[in-house]
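Fold this sequence, please.
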Amino acid sequence: MIDFVVFDLGGVLIDWNPRYLYRKLFDDPNEIEYFLTKICHGQWNESLDEGYPFAKACQDKMAEFPNYRDAIEAYWKRWPEMLNGVHQGTVDLLEQIYQSQSHRLFSITNWSAETFPTARQLFPFLGYFEDIVVSGEEKLIKPNVGIFQILFERNQLMPRKGLFIDDNAKNVDAARACGMQALHFTTSEQLKSDLDSLNILIKS
């Protein structure tokens, strides 16, 4: 029996991609990919999600790559332009669960503590969650199982009664290692089918 559902945010409910910003700053797609794989790359972004200060991280990068100073600074100053709204199909499913009051709702997200307040302002549906564990606030990122333990302990949850949804397979594996059921998100259509099979959605 599943009592609570835990959603990831970026890639599942919220459409975040730094390319939305850097397509405005670079004309050459190859330069975009160079910048996002060699300069402000995924591992560097994870350090922000884990609590490393934006200002210091950008300062370090600007010293290392002075020719890209403006583009590096934009990662912080123009961060909201990396957001392209929501994955509406998934938000609709979240809202259906929320309205039915059939399951408690939570979120665990890898997200900087410095930018997450902006997300709260932009996306009212974040208010559907009883609790959101933000990696930047905890200085701990998925797939570290410790971030799941924070959710369980803070809300007195039994892992075996929870369902976790994430677009990153490593995070899904980590949730299963904690004793949760877990779904690897690909599309909202597939998620709807999976939730139906688990009797999460109330059929009209």
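Residues 88-100 form the longest helix (13 residues). The mean pLDDT is 96.
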